[in-house]
Each structure stands twice: as C-alpha cells, then as structure tokens.
Specification:
The protein is an alpha+beta fold and 258 residues long. It has helices at 82-89, 103-117, 125-146, 154-166, 173-180, 184-195, 199-217, 222-228, 234-245, 249-257, and strands spanning 2-12, 16-20, 27-41, 44-49, 52-56, 62-66, 72-81, 96-98. It has two domains: 2-146, Jelly Rolls, CATH 2.60.120.280; 152-258, Arc Repressor Mutant, subunit A. It is 48% helix and 23% strand.
C-alpha cells in the first residue's frame, strides 16, 4: 500500500523557509527544476541547483531556505507506505543526486499531480499508485545511470534513449549528436567504443524487435510493417531480417502463427 500525501510544484520568488528539526514525518522526493535554494539535511548544509534530486526519509532533520530575491522551482512528492519503504531500503539512497531532467520524468510527476487534484470521489488511487511506482523506478534508474561510477558515460545513455524513441522514424546521426551535445564524429566514436555496435546497428535491433511484435500481434502486411518500423521498403526489411535471423519475415510469421 502506498499513500501519496501530497504531490505538487512550487515556485518561489519572495523567499521561503521551512524546517523539520525534529525529523521529517514522511518520505520526500524533491527535484529542483529552476533556480536554486539551500537545504540542511541531517545537519549538512547544501546548495541545490537545477537537476538536483533530494531524497528525505522519515526522521531526517530537514530545512529548506529560499532567500529573498532568489528564484526556486521544484517538483515534490510526500508519501508513506510499505511499498515505498521496501523500495527505499533495498539500496542506499543518497540525500542529493544530480540527474538529467527528462520531460518524460516530469510528465509522470504532473500526471500524479493531476490525479491528486481530482475530487476525492473521482480519484483513482490504484492508477496514482502505479504512476508513483513508475516515478520511483524512473528516478532510481536515472540516478544510477548518471552516477560517475556507472559503466558508461551518461552522454551515451542519452544517445541510447534517443535512438530507442526515434528508431522507427527517419533517424539521423546528426540528430543523435545534437541530442547528446556532441560533434557527429565524437558521437559516432563514443557510441561504438562504449556499446560495441554502431548507432545504425543499434537502431536496426530496435526496428527488428518492433517488427517482430507487429508480425505477432497485428494483421498489418509485411510491407506496412516495414514502413511502420522505420525500414522504409519491404526489400530492405527482408534483407535485414534475413541477415539477422536466417529466414524471411514471411516464413517467420507463418511459424509464429502456427
């Protein structure tokens, strides 16, 4: 059971101060998205800037200060319950982690906010609970992938996420490079040396996986699937598929359908 006590967005311009010296009563997730502020957690003073994710657990000494003239914007969520305790305890949570602010992450946060704003009679607690769990897991993965000790540069992770999202479209290497904030030559070299395959090879893997799903679960023709999954033409789809799996797409489909 998860109980979301509050979920919202705050934007301060005229100063703000709150303190819980005797211990914060619940779990708090707070993401700084604009400006900066100062927090004190368990006696340690820290300055939070855009991209800083704050984790507070029940009993933590916590103070928040936004000075007059400062701008501070943040998403925050206060919660309690068995699931969040198990999630919190299964691996160590740093009080502050610097992450990349992803629009999908903020979209999840806003969706929870909208659910909690509904009149009590219209709230879907089950949906809110699943959205909350998705948010926690998304945050956990983002923290892990942006940590300096992670096994690949975060710029490569950004490339992978971009490719995964756009592989079935007209993907261009220059778009991947722009998303990662690198030159094309640096993007191509870094991706291949880190992942062990080229950007196009990685995109083809995603296209093939999408095509297999389409063949299994839709009645689209192979020509339509080739276009939908980013191959453009059926002959090209056939060539790539046969090279990967050793059989033609039509044969594979008939085998799957029995």
């Amino acid at each position: 059971m998860t109980n979301i006590l509050f979920c919202g967005y705050s934007y301060h311009t005229n100063g703000y101060h709150s303190q819980h010296k005797s211990g914060y009563p619940s779990y708090l997730l707070r993401l700084q998205t604009e400006g900066h502020c100062e927090v004190v957690v368990k006696g340690q003073k820290m300055n939070l800037e855009k991209g800083d994710l704050l984790f507070i657990q029940p009993g933590d000494h916590y103070e928040l200060l936004v000075e007059d003239g400062q701008i501070s914007g943040d998403y925050h969520l206060v919660c309690e319950g068995n699931w969040v305790k198990e999630w919190w305890d299964r691996n160590k949570k740093q009080n502050v982690s610097r992450i990349h602010i992803d629009e999908k992450l903020l979209s999840l946060w806003r969706q929870i906010m909208m659910e909690k704003r509904r009149p009590a009679s219209n709230q879907d607690e089950e949906l809110a609970s699943y959205l909350f769990k998705a948010l926690c897991l998304f945050l956990e993965r983002t923290v892990r992938e942006t940590a300096p000790s992670f096994n690949r540069p975060y710029s490569v992770t950004r490339m992978m996420r971009y490719i995964e999202e756009h592989a079935t479209q007209a993907l261009k290497i220059e778009d991947v490079a722009q998303h990662a904030g690198l030159s094309i030559s640096r993007t191509v070299h870094l991706f291949k040396s880190t992942i062990g395959k080229t950007i196009i090879e990685y995109a083809l893997e995603i296209r093939l996986a999408a095509a297999i799903d389409q063949m299994k679960y839709t009645s689209l023709t192979l020509e339509q699937i080739a276009e939908e999954c980013g191959f453009g033409t059926y002959p090209y789809f056939h060539r790539v598929f046969h090279k990967k799996y050793g059989i033609a797409p039509g044969v594979y489909r008939r085998m799957e359908l029995g």
